[in-house]
Amino acid sequence: MPTLALTNFNILVGFLGGWISLFGLVSFLCKETFYLSEALISLLAGVAFSPHAANLIRPLEYAGTQANVEAVTLAFSRLVLGVQLVLAGVQLPSKYLRVQWRPMTLLVGLVMTCMWLSTSLLVWAMVPSFPFLYALAVGSCVTPTDPVLSNVIVKGRFADHNIPKDLQDLIISESGANDGLGYPFLFLALYLIKHVGAHGEQGSAAGAGTAIGLWFGETWGYTIILSVIYGAATGLLAKVLLKWAEDRKYVDRESFLVFAISLALFIVGTCGMIGSDDVLACFIAGNAFTWDDWFRLETEDDSFQPTIDMLLNVTIFMWYGAVIPWHEFVHNNVIPIYRLIPLGILVLMLRRLPFVFAIHRWIPQIEQAKQAIFVGFFGPIGVSAVFYLYVTLEFIDGLAEGPNPAADLDQFKETVRVVVWFLAVCSIVVHGLSIPLGKLGYYAPRTLTRNLSIMSGDEGDPNQRAVRVRGRVVFPLSRAGNRAARKQRTGDAESQAQTQSDDEYIRMGPRLRGSVIPEPPKAADQFGNKPVDQNQGPLASMPELPNRSIRFLDDTTPPDKQGD
Questions:
Q1: CA diameter of the chain
Q2: pLDDT digits (tens, 9 = 90+) for 171-191
Q3: In whole angstroms, what is the distance from residue 562 CA to residue 539 CA?
Q4: CA–CA distance, 176 with 384 (Å, rounded to integer)
Q5: Using CA atoms, how far apart are residues 63 and 67, in angstroms rounded to an integer?
Q6: Distance of CA 47 to the CA centre of its chain
Q7: How many CA atoms are closer than 13 Å to the CA of 200, on its beta-carbon side?
Q8: Contact 142, 108 (CB under 8 A)
Q9: Mean pLDDT across 333-351
Q10: For residue 197, how many other CB atoms are within 10 A of its CB?
Q11: Measured between alpha carbons, how far is 363 from 512 in angstroms, rounded to an integer?
């Protein structure tokens, strides 16, 4: 006898497929007409079907424990970032990182450092009784700009119409590079917390020296430099192998298109095994893979990679909507909601915008002040922030299990989880709605003014609508309008003298580029009656146009025989 199998797998897969299908039916309308990001829409869908609402997506039940939920979220974020950053590197023009090293150095060096310090200061000021070293760790999580949310302003109709191509490339390159370069900012704070202490209780020159030594050796040497070398070598080797196979017709089109995706999976897995920076390695590998522009040009018109990109984005933001600790935003022991909301506003306003605006004169791609404001505002916080959040939580758990753990580690852990998740939600919502709201604010006053003018009668009479013909203002449907225009142009006396000619001008029919198109003369009917005004009015003096015929190139009929 048939029975219902309402297992978690069936419910999850069925809901995921149904949502992607329903979103696909209106995806063009949402993204290209209303400029809504798929990240925001998927996040709201995840919230609607999360345990806090419809309870159709139950992450805790799938994973078993909260620790397993955090591990799954971290692994999922790594996967999405790896694929996204390989594709971001592939999109860049040939040798982009070498050609544009000056603006990239300003953005990922100076600007990123200022973003880290400003965000840390805001967190330190808004969270009560919070040590500054803890605030540095929290600020480092939200310092990188997110490549997933940056797609809102570098892809689609809005980007094609409003963002220059060289500026799009700069935004893609910055968001890819600074994701991997978030490690030095994070682990400088974490090593100091471990070896010096948040309150200096373990403070000594030896402890600070140990922390700085680990920061240079492990973070910069093993994590950053090794990942750059590994990513560049892997990307170049993959390009050579794929070119060799393509020249000999060993690879089919499907495997050729999926090669960049498989390269991302390989780097994420192997870098994860050796403990290096897989995020930065994926971006470097993608740029090295298309160093000579060969693969980018071969796949430029293909839609397979954007399809995979869309599937990953929709899925991960639905998952985020289900695992975000919404209740902790209001009920927590570290920061009240009346401080949390101003913190989100201040971070979005002061984290990036002032510093990009200050140095935009030294970045050739940012030519105008409004472009600097735009680039400074769009520094979204998303998947990369969640990734660094769970890296920080893993480090805190390691400190708690070690000897002499600090008494306020629980406060540190709760603060970083609440603040980072809240800032990520603020960024997803604000940056996801800023373009449609900006378009609405631009067009709404004009539309409202025009409608009010029509309702008040200013444009309600179609007879008062003027056109300009040969420099003259003409009212095609109104003789009174023509008289008024003539009066305004030449005075009352001449206006009276030209009234009759204006009336005849109106009766002469429509004009096409200044030439009169008269109605054909009416012939006498079968009783011999001629039209009343056939020989009267302004058309009487017009010459009769000769009959002309159209002769085609292959027509051999003599000219005198044409028309017979």
A1: 122
A2: 999 999 998 899 999 999 999
A3: 29
A4: 10
A5: 8
A6: 22
A7: 3
A8: no
A9: 95
A10: 17
A11: 50
Burial class (CB in 10 A: 0-12, 13-18, 19+), 25: exposed
Q: What are phi and psi of 467, to 5 degrees?
A: -130, 165
Closest CA to 117 of 169, 65, 58, 188: 188
Q: pLDDT digit string (tens) for 236-256?
A: 999 999 999 999 999 999 999
Decide if 339 contacts 126 (C-beta within 8 A). Answer: yes
SS3 516: strand
177 and 213 Cβ atoms separated by less than 8 Å: no
CB 389 within 8 A of CB 110: no
- Average pLDDT taken over every residue of the chain: 82
Task: With beta carbons less than 8 A apart as the criterion, state whether 115 and 149 touch.
Answer: no
Any idea what the Cα angle at residue 215 is, between residues 213 and 216, rounded to 5°? 70
The number of angstroms, rounded, from the C-alpha of 331 to the middle of its chain's C-alpha atoms is 33
Q: Are 425 and 324 in contact (CB under 8 A)?
A: yes
The two structure tokens encoding residue 330: 């209001």
Enumerate helices (H) and strands (E) in the chain, giving the number of each.
29, 4
- In angstroms, how far is CA 389 from the centroid of its own chain? 23
How far is Cα 45 from Cα 126, in angstroms, rounded to an integer? Answer: 31
E strands, 420-480, are 467-469, 472-474
Q: Write the DSSP assignment of 121-163 as a string of letters.
A: HHHHHHSTT--HHHHHHHHHHT-SPPTTTTHHHHSSHHHHHHS
Length of the chain: 564
* Contact present, 439 and 35 (Cβ < 8 Å): yes
Residue 367: CB partners within 8 Å, gap ≥ 6? 164
Residue tagged 């090669």 (tokens): 259
Confidence (pTM): 0.79
Cβ–Cβ under 8 Å, residues 190 and 184: no
The model's pLDDT over 137-150, given as tens digits with 9 standing for 90+, comes to 999 999 999 888 88
